[in-house]
Amino acid sequence: MFCLLLGYFQKSLGNQTHNVGKVFISQQHSTPSVLFKRPTGCSRGFRTRPRTERILSRGKRLAGRREMGSASSAYRVIYLDVDGRIQKVVFSKFCSPYDIKELFCTAVGLRRNTVLSLLDSAGALVSIDPHMPHNTERSPYKVVPLSGGQLGDKEELFQNVLTQVAEQFSRAFKINELKTEVTNRLTMLEKRVELEGMKVVEIEKCRSDIKKLREEMASRNNSHFLDDNKMLTLRRDVPSYPKYHLSQETMEALRKPTFNVWQWEPNEVRRGGRPITAKESGNPALMLSCLEHMYHDLDLVRDFNMNPVTLKRWLLCIHDNYRMNPFHNFRHCFCVTQMMYSMICLCGLQETFNQVDILVLMTAAVCHDLDHPGYNNTYQINARTDLAVRYNDISPLENHHCAVAFQILSQPDCNILSTFDPESFQHIRQGIITLILATDMARHGEILDSFRHKVDSFDFTDEEHVTCLKTMLIKCCDVSNEVRPMEVAEPWVDCLLEEYFTQSDREKAEGLPVAPFMDREKVTKPTAQIGFIKFVLIPMFETVMKLFPQIEEVMVQPLRESRDRYEELKQIDDAMTEVKSYLCAEKEKPEFDYRKREMRAQELNPPLVVKVHSQYEDYGDKATLTD
């Protein structure tokens, strides 16, 4: 408060001349010194009197005239006692008390913002204002500056008054009740906004239905069919999956690569007043709620004005268009998206990327394996499927995932990108397509080499560099299961091998080439993982680590530990195989038994044995006869 009251600063202008607003003061060395102050707004400023005797005498005569005619003059004269020296102060009666105090401070040699009091010869306080009592040179006023303690007391008193005033205002206007009322009204408004949003979606849905009915009447052959005669599944009902309130612990865990996608905390969510079971935790509604939370937490819904109902409907439609494969299913989609979300948080990508790039990364992760049939590109090309023919053997699955993703977004009630203008939509579409096509492992070496050439001199302002980094990020997330803890990662290996074995069985039945790493008779879990971790995962993550060193501890180191663990398992498997082979060989080895060997010899050459015994018998007979 005192800073507000005394907010002017003093400027020195050489030769002991001071400038106070529009007031000019010159301290004279004669006795008594005379200070002049004109009121603010006067056409003529303050004049510093020359040091010549003639001008000084004239000033004294003028001052005397003003004193003599004080009843009608516009100036007042006050005498101050400054360390035993009489200081004469002249000011206009139109000056404000603040200006007069400022003038007194200057006369006494104090800072202009000093708080002071004025005492007469009897020690009584004198008010400092234009109408203060007149005095003479023989009865000067004494200027007393207030001490710091007095100022502190005044400030404390002022703070107490302010506190009391605030309390009185709070009681008078019932601030707390108003806060509660405003909160309740905001809640009601949010519900109304959500309902209005649902109405808008329903209107758009009705318009779309009418348009489609008209198109069907004109032509009955405009349905979109996917591979194996699978029709695109659309969501036209109002989304009604249960809303799960995620705990703070789960929201924090979602930001980390160690998130367990197989098991939820028992007290995480409740249904009907009871905790859900581990079996119920497989309900996709839980994963849908987490995905919805990610879009809100990254401010994508707010920044791009997404309709929350449309977001829910889009997520449900995404879920319905993932097939029930052992590996490439909706849970895999959730894992990849959650890993992308954790990398965005861990690497601080929102500080280096714009929000459109974040939207492209998240949406591409959600859509990257839509309608995956469970058989890879090699099978599609060798079997000459419709997808391979349609896309000319060029990444048929990845092209198909892109097509399904934008077929879903083409539906008004599922279009989370409806707020973008055509040019921005085209830019986002191209970004999503680029990232999904990059998940084809046939292009792994090409993409990794391109990033290696850029990483040492990476430029976040270069669009080509940023696009290359985004392709690396989605590739890392797509194959990131081994980054997670062993108990989370190992079940995914079983799921992947099951899908591989199903494909190899079908390839054998159809007479198609079979990859060794998919043949159930040749591959084991350790052999399947060691080469992939050593030659694909670790080099790729270590290259990204050059740009984001913070991923070493939480991503690269777990990969190294996983590699070591599988190498130990392979050594154990090799030792067990050797022991089994030795036991089988020993089991088949014959025992050293002469009787059995003789019987074996008889079986091998019976005529020779019979002949020997016949000669012996003949010789015996002859001997007998001879005797």
From TrEMBL:
AMP binds at residues 328-332, 369, 478, 529. GO terms for molecular function: 3',5'-cyclic-GMP phosphodiesterase activity; metal ion binding. It comes from the Eukaryota. It is an enzyme of class 3 (hydrolase). The active site is at 328 (proton donor). Its EC number is 3.1.4.-. Gene3D superfamilies: 3'5'-cyclic nucleotide phosphodiesterase, catalytic domain. Zn(2+) 1 binds at residues 332, 368-369, 478. Zn(2+) 2 binds at residue 369. Specifically hydrolyzes the second messenger cGMP, which is a key regulator of many important physiological processes. Highly specific: compared to other members of the cyclic nucleotide phosphodiesterase family, has the highest affinity and selectivity for cGMP. Specifically regulates natriuretic-peptide-dependent cGMP signaling in heart, acting as a regulator of cardiac hypertrophy in myocytes and muscle. Does not regulate nitric oxide-dependent cGMP in heart. Belongs to the cyclic nucleotide phosphodiesterase family. PDE9 subfamily. This is Phosphodiesterase.
